[in-house]
Structures are given as C-alpha cells and as structure tokens.
Design a protein that fits this description.
This protein is α/β, with parallel strands linked by helices. The protein has ten helices and seven strands. Strands 1, 2, 3, 4, 5, 6 and 7 form a seven-stranded mixed beta sheet that branches. Bound molecules: flavin-adenine dinucleotide.
Length: 397
C-alpha cells in the first residue's frame, strides 16, 4: 500500500479547462484529504466511526455551504464547490455525504426558504461546524416517492405539532437541527395538504434519533431513523418560503450536483490504485499484470469513462454557474457518474485480485459506499425516468 499514493487523473488535459481559482480550490481540498482523511479512513470504516474531528478543519477551509454567499460562507462557484466534493469523495463517500447534507440539504434550504431570523441564527453556526444538521425526507414506507409521506404538522395556536417517522437520515443522531419535511394538516384554503419544511431542534421533547447499525456501506457516515412524537415547535420554525414537494426536490438537486462530481473522486481513487497495482504486480513469466490485454481493457474502459464523466459534470457546472442548469441535466450527471464510478470500483477490485477485498486498499470501501450513492438522492432508475420524461414529455413513474 505504501507504494501506492494517489497521483491525480487527467487524460486529456482536463485541468486546462479549469481556471486558476478552480485548480487552487481543488488542490487545497486534495491536500487536506491526503493529510487528514486518508490516514484514518480505513480505521473509521472498520469501526463504523464518523471522523468528527475533521468537522472544524473542514469548516475552516470553507467546505460547508461553500457555494452560498454571506453568513461566513465561502461564496465558491458551482464548479469550485464540485471540485471540493470530488476530492472529499476521493477520500470517502461517507465524509462527502456529511458535507453534502450540511451544505446542500440543511444550509441551502435555510438560505433559500428561511426567514432572516432563521438565516442569522443557523447559517453562521452551520458554516463554522459549531452546529450540525440533517435532512429528513425519506420515511420507512416512502423513498423514491416522498410525496406519499405520512409525517404531519398540525398548527395549534402559535405552534406546530409534528408527528411521524423518518428513515435513512444522514447525520440524524449528531445533528443539532433537523430540516423535517411534513404535510401541514389544517392550514390554507382547504385545497389539500401541502408539504412544507420545518426546523426542528433535536433536543425538543418527543424527538428521537436512533442509528441504523449493520450498514456495509458509508460506514464512516452516521445514518439514523428519526421519530417525532408530538414535537412542538414555534411557528417561527416553519421555513416560510417552502411550498410543496418542489422545495425538497430543489434541495436534492443541489446535493445531486455535488454527488455527480463526488463520484468522479471515488472512481479516480479506484482507477489510480488499480493502475499502479497492475504495474507492480507480476504474474506469468515475471511480467506485470498491466501487460495483459484483458487488464489493459479494464484500465482503458475506466479512464475513458472517467474522462467523459469529467466533461459531463464540468459542462453541467458551467451551466449551473450561468443559472441555466436544469434538473434533468443534474440527473444525467448523477446517474452517469455514479454508475461509472461503481463500475470502476468493480473493475479495479477485480484487477487487485484477492488484495482487492482487503482494506489495505481503498477499493472495496469505495465499492460498498457507491452502492448507497447509487440508491440515495434519487436511485439510478429514478434518474433514468427523469431523463426519459425530459426527452419524451411523458411521465413514466
Ligand atoms: C446511506 C444512506 C443515506 C441516506 N441519507 C438520507 C438523508 O439524509 N435524508 C433522506 O431523506 N433520505 C436519505 N436516504 C434515503 C434515500 O434517499 C432513499 O433510500 C432513496 O430515495 C430510495 O428510496 P428507498 O430506499 O425507499 O427505495 P425504493 O423507493 O423502495 O426503491 C426500491 C427500488 O425500486 C425502484 N423503483 C421505485 N419506484 C420506481 C418506479 N416508479 N419505476 C421504476 N423503478 C422504481 C428504485 O429505483 C429501486 O431500485 C439515504 C439512504 C442511504 C442508503
């Protein structure tokens, strides 16, 4: 393992498509991950431990809410933010998940749908990592179809009372604040229940978070079930700008964009490890396994797909920076890049033979992590349907 150290992956001078600031952000994040996450991640993964000691240093580098302006946030472009998530996920998808949730699923909704008071209370503290957040949309019976959710909020005087269950919630038990999506029962003009977002401080009576154990994926990330039983919150905790299912979907779009970059990081880690290994490992006539055509075919497939994925997500990032990215563009980038990364992890694992299943190398961890990444934030197939609906105009859900 000592002989194998990440060297970066760039087949077609992709770096020349980045400006100086973008390269600087990428290189800073890369160095941080190399120095701080790589040395501890296998231990964290074995122990099922989230490396909480990295929260403050990541905050200091501006990783939380990186693409937001004000409130202490770094105000990065979308491409810069994407390059950060790429480097984080080159380290570990679980740590990137933590940052995605804090940034895209907690700070973004407060920034976009929140009142001034909510923004001033939460955003600076979340940016500094003094407070942590989680995003509760999925329920035990509603994953791909969150519109069916059972969680309800009922207005009683100047409070809301929340009841429901959320499942598979990243950072659930370590969060200080949960962004909870619920249907409001008794508000409005009687036209039906509307999904709205609520900020729920996790120390309120009736709120409980229990970790999900036995995960073989994202082991360095905390995943919890949330239970809300008659949790009372002041009406000022409603995110006033949230209105309908499109509000949480807007948040997911932000997170999916980061994942599309992140997956490239995981793919790069696997590919570069497999390439270096294949040059060192000798089988048959004392030749490196890299000299065999079948091994080269795998390496060629991987670098080919990584390169295409880089170009796809860079274009989506440039569109996003120009305010022109559509949700179907982000779906294509998430769908393609996560699939591509998972295939790279599988092929890399194969190239390492038996060593590929051991955690002396990062590949099996990435492979297992990417199984979750393929499922969350809209499964691979749900993104297929989003793209299909976009090109045909016909909803096939
Ligand atoms: C580690 C981890 C962390 C997560 N973190 C969070 C979080 O922080 N917050 C949160 O709210 N959620 C979170 N999730 C939940 C995640 O978003 C859901 O798992 C995801 O939306 C899929 O839902 P499901 O697991 O219920 O699968 P289901 O919706 O039951 O889907 C199962 C299968 O059926 C397929 N399917 C479903 N509907 C259709 C259809 N119409 N057509 C074709 N195929 C279909 C799916 O593609 C999939 O293959 C997390 C999940 C994981 C694994």
């Amino acid at each position: 393992m000592a002989a194998i150290k990440f060297r970066g992956v760039d087949f077609i001078e992709f770096d020349t498509l980045l400006n100086d600031d973008e390269r600087l952000v990428r290189d800073t994040a890369r160095q941080f991950i190399e120095d701080n996450l790589v040395p501890i991640i296998e231990e964290c993964n074995r122990a099922g431990r989230f490396p909480r000691e990295l929260v403050k240093p990541m905050a200091d580098l501006g990783f939380f809410g990186a693409s937001l302006d004000g409130y202490g946030c770094a105000g990065m472009s979308n491409v810069e933010y994407g390059l950060v998530t790429q480097e984080l996920e080159r380290g570990d998808s679980g740590v990137r998940s933590f940052v995605s949730v804090q940034s895209a699923l907690v700070m973004y909704p407060i920034y976009t749908f929140g009142s001034d008071q909510q923004k001033n209370t939460w955003l600076p503290a979340l940016q500094k990592g003094e407070k942590l957040g989680c995003f509760g949309l999925t329920e035990p019976d509603f994953g791909s179809d969150p519109g069916g959710m059972r969680t309800r909020a009922r207005k009683v005087g100047n409070e809301y009372v929340l009841n429901g269950e959320k499942m598979w919630i990243t950072s659930g038990s370590i969060a200080d604040v949960a962004v909870i999506w619920a249907k409001v029962e008794n508000e409005g003009d009687g036209a039906g229940e509307t999904i709205r977002g609520f900020l729920v401080e996790t120390d309120r009576p009736g709120f409980k978070a229990d970790d999900i154990h036995g995960k073989w994926s994202l082991r360095a990330s905390v995943t919890s079930g949330l239970s809300l039983q008659d949790v009372r919150i002041p009406e000022s905790n409603l995110l006033p700008g949230s209105n309908g299912l499109k509000s949480p979907l807007m948040c997911l779009n932000q997170a999916r964009y980061g994942i599309a970059w992140g997956a490239i990081g995981a793919a790069m880690a696997c590919y570069d490890c497999a390439l270096q290994y294949s040059l060192l490992r000798k089988q048959f006539r004392d030749q490196p396994i890299a000299s065999h055509q079948l091994v080269q075919e795998k390496l060629a497939w991987m670098i080919n797909e990584i390169t295409k994925a880089q170009l796809l997500v860079l274009q989506v990032g440039r569109l996003k920076d120009a305010g022109k990215a559509q949700h179907q563009h982000i779906s294509m980038a998430k769908r393609n890049n996560v699939w591509m990364a998972l295939e790279c992890a599988r092929q890399s694992r194969d190239i390492l033979g038996a060593n590929g299943v051991a955690d002396d190398y990062p590949i099996m961890r990435h492979l297992m992590n990417l199984e979750s990444v393929k499922t969350y934030e809209g499964t691979h197939d749900i993104h297929t349907l989003i793209i299909g609906a976009s090109v045909t105009g016909i909803d096939a859900f």
